[in-house]
# Entry
Amino acid sequence: MEEQTAGPSSAAAKKLKIAQIGIVVEDASRTARHYAEIFGMGPWLFRDLTPTDGSLRGEVLGNAGGCFREAVTAFNDIEIKLIEPLYGPGAYMEFLRKHGGGIHHLSLGAIDDNDTLISGLQKAGIGIEMRGHLGGAHVFTCLDAVRELGTRFEVMQPALPGATTEIEPWGFYEPPAPPLWNMEKKRINQIGFVVDDAEAMAKRYEELLGIGPWRIVLTNTRRPAGAPKRKGPSKAILHGIPMIEMDLRLKIALADCDDMQFELIEPLAGPGTHWEFLKKQGNGVHHLSFGRVNDHDHCIGVLQQRGIDIEMSGPGGPGSRFFYMSTQKELGTVFEFVSVPPPADAGT
# Structure
C-alpha cells in the first residue's frame, strides 16, 4: 500500500537499519539480469558459498551444510542479495522447496553488540534458524522471527581486526544498457509484510527491536449496505482481471526503521493479494515499494509490455492508486508503485 508518514522512529530503532534484503530465487543469474534490464541495478558480484561450522535449527552441520550461489548489488543505500540454493541441507533450500522463492530475510548487517541482540531475541522465544562462517572472517546468524515479527532477520558478527576473507567472486555482471525507465530519485522506501495480527506484531517490534511508534490504519472499500450493486467492472484489478467489487478490508500498522518504512498488513477479507498470500504462505514479506513515482503510468506500461500483469491495484491515499506488479518470476518478489495525483489546477 502507499507509504504514509508514521512519525519519528524511537531512539532504539535509529540504531537499527536494514542493510540488505535476501531473496531466494531459482536462478540467480537470470534474476540478476532481469533486475539489470528493468531497474538498471548493478554491477552484480557472483559467489558460490558453503558455510563452515554451520548449524540448522540447532543441528550441527559442521562443514556439511548446503552450498548456495549469491548475486549481490547495491541499490542506493541498500543491498539486494539473490540466493540460489545449489545443493545440500540449509534454510534457503527449505524455503525454496516450500514457497518457490521470495524474500527470505532482512539483514541488519554487522552489529557491534550482535551477541546481546541475539541473546535477547532468544530469551523472547525467537530461535536461530541457521548459523555459519563464511570465508573465514564472517559469522552470520539467521533468526526465525516469522511468527513474532513476520520474517527472518540476519545479523553479522563484525570481522575481527586484521581478519581476511577468502570469499572471492567468480562472476561480475554490469547492466548492458540503460534501464527501461528513468531511475533517478527512485528508491525502495517501504517493505510490506502480510501478517495474521498487525497490532500484536507492532507491539512485538517495539518490545524486541525498539521499532516504533506505530500508527494503525483501517481500510475499507466494501460497498455500503443498501448501495446499488455495480453493473460493470470497477477500476480495481486482481491478477490482471478487472474486479466487479473490491472488498479491501485491511488493518495496517506503519512505522519507520531508520529511513525504511515497515508496513504490517493484516487482511480482514478477500479476495485480494494479501488474503491469498496469508492463506498460502502465512506471515512473510509480501512486497517492496518504490512509493509514489511521477512516471507511474510509464513504469506500469513498460512492465505490461514485458508480459508482467498487475497483481492488484486499487485506491491508495487521497487521489492516488497503488499498483502491485506480478514480478515474482522475474524479480523474486512483488514490487509496488503508487500513482501521483495530478495537481489541483491541472487542465485549467
User: Anything to note?
Assistant: The first helix runs from residue 28 to 39. The helical segments are 28-39, 91-99, 114-123, 146-149, 198-209, 273-281, 296-305, 328-331. The CA atoms of residues 149 and 201 lie 6 Å apart.
